Amino acid sequence: MRTPKIAVVDYQAGNLRSVQKALERYGAEAVVTSGASVIGDADALVFPGQGANDSSMRALRARTLVDPISRFIASGRPFLGVCLGLQLLLESSDEGVEPGLGTLPGRVRALPRGLKVPHMGWNQVEFVREHPVFEGVPTGSYFYFVHSYYADPEDKGLVAGTTSYGVEFCSVVAYENVVATQFHPEKSGAAGLKLYENFVHAASWG
Amino acid sequence: MLTKRIIPCLDIDGGRVVKGVSFVNIRDAGDPAELAAFYDSEGADELVFLDITASSDGRDIMIDIVRQVSERVFIPLTVGGGIRSVEDVRRMLEAGADKVSLNTAAVHNPQLVKETSDFFGSQCIVVAIDYKATEKIEGGTAPPLIGDLPLGPASKWEVYTHGGRKPTGVDAVRWAERASELGAGELLVTSMNTDGQQSGYDLEYTREVSEQVTVPVIASGGVGNLTHLDDAIKIGKADAVLAASIFHYGTYRISEAKDYLGKRGVPVRPVQVQ
């Protein structure tokens, strides 16, 4: 096992320090970067995100980060998307006009009306499929959510976890090297840290 | 199910945690990073740090504190007090805060709520509203700070700024609605009448605001026992409850509060055994 180098994509997306500190806690070298070559050379990639679909996609394009992220995902190395970093993997969004990365066929939809939005706080995730990144995290664990839209991938076989808030929505996508969560594992106490521990572990052996 | 949040509030002065009783009579209650780690292990759902000096020195000290806390605490952290600009917000987020609360500066310049929420996203902008029941108005009041939200005959609550010291002539329910429209992702509402009195939250205002806005509302000011938490959620329709002294002085542990609420049918995140 060696010290994995994990890139954290920086495109003015809120608090990146907690992501970095969570990765470092488990022995990774975590680099917050908007550099395509740093991303290309990393052992693993974290794609965080907060804010709106359109401004975020424009920020990614302005930094010419769309291709480096897509190439990284296709390379098979461990990838973790967080919050908007899950939503932007899809093709389109109710929230705006800018297309997403299109890694996953499907659309980002608005949470139903009649409930407080954003969906903010701790809610449960029911794991419907296994993935090494969730090893040791029991189904029904609580995670911290802050969002007004949710990912609706066409291939339901990619959904690894679901959460209820007015609608039962996809809160985790996981397949092969890709894991993406609607919640913020770096803000979800012990359950979330376990996920980072597993991710760093995967990056060490990748 | 989405749970109701219990949020300890840490008032910070000169790098130390203090708690004012009705904003006077301050007592020292400890080191911020230690206390934050303690509350995380106790099962707090979030933490709020408030710089009660609201000064530029205070902001620099707060940035150091946030950096220290974010090394070891992995639950949401809101920072408020003296935040006046987009740049102030950026510095707090970079230091490791998840949300920033705007209070006096937002009343003086409501566009700050729009600018910061457009730029960083609504999810990280909390508008904190300090309010007081309106007193009988004789011979009119000074012009309101927000021209189109003046107190009227039907107004029951007035916005106060500067740590709850200065009246503004602004209707506190209408300001809550406006702040939410401008992009606040959450409202933190503190009654200056009940704060520090331990006699319970102002349920009427909390409920009125919670029913008028679509964003989550945090009740604050006046909690003295666990029934008050239950009342804020069930009667006040609060999405989260803020408390300080009942936890700081060990009157109750967070696990006791969650047990109490859980037994009364309020969804809470169980405290994890560590």
Key phrases:
heterodimer; A: alpha/beta; Rossmann fold; 9-stranded mixed beta sheet; 3-stranded mixed beta sheet; globular; B: alpha/beta; 8-stranded parallel beta barrel; 10 helices; 25% strand
Describe the protein's architecture and organization.
The complex is a heterodimer of chains A (206) and B (274). Chain A is α/β, with parallel strands linked by helices and 206 residues long. Chain A has helices spanning 17-25, 36-41, 53-62, 66-74, 84-87, 189-205; strands at 5-9, 29-33, 44-47, 79-82, 90-93, 104-110, 119-127, 141-147, 149-153, 159-164, 168-175, 178-181. Chain A has a single domain (5-205), classed as Class I glutamine amidotransferase (GATase) domain (Rossmann fold, 3-Layer(aba) Sandwich). In chain A, the strands form two sheets. A nine-stranded mixed sheet of chain A has the order 2-1-3-4-12-11-10-7-8, sandwiched between helices. In chain A, strands 5-6-9 form a three-stranded mixed sheet, with no helix packed on it. The longest helix of chain A is centred in the C-terminal third of the chain and has 17 residues, at 189-205. The mean pLDDT of chain A is 95. Chain B is 35% helix and 25% strand. Chain B has a single domain (5-263), classed as Aldolase class I (TIM Barrel), CATH 3.20.20.70. The longest helix of chain B is centred in the N-terminal third of the chain and has 17 residues, at 56-72. The A-B interface holds A 12, 14-18, 21-22, 50-52, 55, 116-124, 142, 144-148, 164-165, 184, 186-193 and B 1-5, 40, 45, 67, 70-71, 74-76, 93-98, 118, 120-124, 185-186, 214-216, 239-240, 269-270, 272, 274.
- Total domain modules of chain B: 1
Quote the beta fraction of chain A.
25-35%
> Which blocks of ≥5 consecutive residues of chain A have pLDDT under 50?
none
Unreliable segments of chain B (pLDDT under 50, ≥5 consecutive)?
Answer: 20-28
Proportion of helical residues of chain B:
25-40%
By CATH reckoning, the class of chain A would read Alpha Beta
Q: Reading side by side through the largest sheet of chain B, how are the strands ordered?
A: 1-4-5-6-7-10-11-12
Sheet having the most strands of chain B: 8 strands, parallel, barrel
What is the subunit organization of this protein? heterodimer
Radius of gyration of chain B in whole Å, from Cα? 17 Å
Q: Which range does the strand content of chain B fall in?
A: 25-35%
Q: What is the assigned CATH homologous superfamily of chain B? A: Aldolase class I
Please report the distance between the alpha carbons of the first and last residues of chain A. 10 Å
